[in-house]
Write a structure and sequence with these properties.
The structure is a homodimer. Chain A has 18 helices and 18 strands. The first copy, chain A, is of the alpha+beta class.
Chain lengths: 526, 526
Amino acid sequence: MQWDAWGDPACRRELSDGVRALLTSALGVTAPPVLRRSIGEVPVEPSALGPTHLRALSAVVGDSHVGVSDIDRLLHAGGKSTLDLLRRRSVDRQQAPDAVLTPGGADEVQDILRYCSKHRIAVVPFGGGTSVVGGLDPVRDGFEAVVSLDLRRFDQLSDLDEESGIATLGAGITGPRAEELLRARGFSIGHFPQSFRFATIGGFAATRSSGQASAGYGRFEDMVHGLTVVTPSGVLVTGRAPASAAGPDLGELFVGSEGTLGVITEVRVRVHHVPEAIEREGWNFPDFATGAAALRQLVQESSVPTVLRLSDEAETGVNLATTGKIGESAVAGGCLGITTYEGTAELVSQRMAQARAVLAAHGGTSLGPEPGNDWEKGRFDAPYLRDALLDAGALCETLETATTWGNLANVRTAVTQALVDALTTQGTSPLVMCHISHTYTTGASLYFTVVCAQTTDPSGQWLAAKRAAGDAITGSGATITHHHAVGVDHRPWMADEIGGLGANILQAVKNAVDPAGILNPGKLIP
Amino acid sequence: MQWDAWGDPACRRELSDGVRALLTSALGVTAPPVLRRSIGEVPVEPSALGPTHLRALSAVVGDSHVGVSDIDRLLHAGGKSTLDLLRRRSVDRQQAPDAVLTPGGADEVQDILRYCSKHRIAVVPFGGGTSVVGGLDPVRDGFEAVVSLDLRRFDQLSDLDEESGIATLGAGITGPRAEELLRARGFSIGHFPQSFRFATIGGFAATRSSGQASAGYGRFEDMVHGLTVVTPSGVLVTGRAPASAAGPDLGELFVGSEGTLGVITEVRVRVHHVPEAIEREGWNFPDFATGAAALRQLVQESSVPTVLRLSDEAETGVNLATTGKIGESAVAGGCLGITTYEGTAELVSQRMAQARAVLAAHGGTSLGPEPGNDWEKGRFDAPYLRDALLDAGALCETLETATTWGNLANVRTAVTQALVDALTTQGTSPLVMCHISHTYTTGASLYFTVVCAQTTDPSGQWLAAKRAAGDAITGSGATITHHHAVGVDHRPWMADEIGGLGANILQAVKNAVDPAGILNPGKLIP
């Protein structure tokens, strides 16, 4: 990925004249484009890792697996939140880890963690680098140095138990590579978050990731059969059986641990046969409340599609759900729903019939396959659009939460109002859009996209909006994050989220596995 | 429940002459019936709780909520494993908690835990008293005294969010009472373990219970939206949203904590509308391997029934799956499968058609609704049968595990062989039967029932068999328990199950929430 933008520069997205006109007329975007610099031109804070440590760590992983160049370090300097991108563009001298280590096995990871524990060197585990919550920030937090531990060499499909439907995958394998390895054997994981193209299997587990097909295949935590986690205090192997009553599920402590409790080196993940058939269908609902009620009925009472989404009126109005056509042609009002169905041809047809009956009975009108196909084509591209908007002087960011069905309208209103108020106060009245992309029998996620003009301090501008939104989420009883994880950015709300005793428990676990506190300091644990 | 047997004495089960003849001829049962004593006749170890403590605890819960009579104490003396029942019949002076406290609210629980922490009094949380792993044993473990904390007064359905499908239930509500309260509003939990009639909502959570309808409604951990847990260090409220990426799922630490980490006082549980239609169908498979492969195909590739079970040849042969007809009429060889389907009439019909096609394609022959209806009628009665067998001089006990589909045949063979060897060596060649009652895409449970003649030391006899079975389970890579929990009986295998680091993590959590270690000592944590 580019150092100061999402993904592959070849996929760079140009805004259409229509969108540019809309930004100016509706949002008052007038700011000049933000400076972009090529990675070779950027000054980087010098490495704080002395030659003794460098030699010792090189002895563990081999000289060729220790990166100390500015470029290596910059490419591991953090994630891809809007704040990250703004910082890379606006700050002259960049912070970066002092070295990048790419160990080749769990033993090397163990040796690195032991050495760093002894010598007070912080370690930031690094997968695909797609965090949008500051989860990869090279926080020093009183340590002598901080190194990035890149898991890219954990790249093997080391086992596929076809009978049990369990694949053993190295933590550093990216989403596309995992699907490629598995599809060659006729299998698929079915986990497709927006970060899919770059994020890794280990990262999916470390952040409690949830993919676009969660309605059908579950969240990544549901797919995890077992983990191998290397900690400074030893190795934990979880997932002895498909289900167990042998005490608390310790694996659940490491799913979502964000590199603070250990380094996930291997994931045993549930896989299924590559679906024989896929059908997609778009739906129109007269308004968000009607659409949300229809989705609720569907997940509570019927067969559930593999993908199930609902955009609100604002998002539907600008066609954000199908990024290929954004701003070009608006559907005729109302709210757009997307459904897809995967499986054997017969099951797809039967499930689709069941779901269609429920959606139609609850106020939906079929729009045929096209909106679903359009959505599918552009479904990993929104981050490129954000970069184009940032380049054009607009501020664009997303945030998300989840709550019960009974609290959904309340949370949506509270968060939208908080964002509108916080940005309007700064003279930049925003467009706030929302969709449901993950559904459960008891509730759903809410995903907000915010676009407005940048002020002269866009980072400060967004921080104020984010603070207001986070307070509104927490204040209305929802979770501070449904799938983006905690990192640095959501940490201020964690004490409220899990309570004082919850924070103590998390810290107690941390102390047990990482007594020196070297693992990803400054993240997650309040 | 009776002090020395399962359940309600009015439901006492008589063995038919056919079964009695079978016990004698096939298993050589000749031992005379074991002594049964009425609860009033049994000598009980005197209470070790001095008057100062008694006054202080009475001040917390009120005089009428402190039980110190021998009968109160005997009724809280432990659970209902075969070892428990043998001990009650064979040992003269019985061990029992020193007092039984029945607090009326979370505040009182908190006060009890604080007092007991300060004064080194162990506390055993008590729900329905149905543990079959020694989870309720009044272990003193160096403490001055041990009290039973009975949650029966936590008996309210305090909230029902019909839109979100979430019920807030007091931890002390039994299975039938919870269903009664919810059905009055049109809802059901759908959790029906064999202990259903006596076990409690809090107990289901504390033991990671799994019910007979787990294929349709999931394990109890899947149904738990949130918990309120009172610990000596404060109260934890989990379950802020249907799903969250805000760090590790701390609720998963308390589901399965067996009273060692806190007292669960309230459970917010997922509920669904009372199903409109229920269909049942029995199936015959030529052998267990064919039947297991058919179940695997079903859960991996199709719609899944609500209940899905498969008895092996031995269990099918004595008709144990339908306890009402045990030993009376054997089906014509092969293995009996049971399926049930619940939901709207239309969905039941569609799902049943989908599942039938898969089962038939994989070697199954429909037996029509009768076997399913027979199973349904007797599905909570097996423990009464065990009592009748014990009274007749037979030894009868069950144990269970789970593993991946790929390892299922291996585990079944290893455990069966271990049981046969360990009991045959003692001169009591057993009948070992097995069934699958819980299925997952990646694997299934195995539930073993063992019947043989009692030796003169039936407790020692069973301990040897259990030790061999546990070693075989652990040695073959399966979990030491799929749904019976750990308690005292499975604790010897926990270090192997979760590893040394896992044990340290569990102990670290224990130290954080229960620094004095008063909560259910001697259980779960290795």
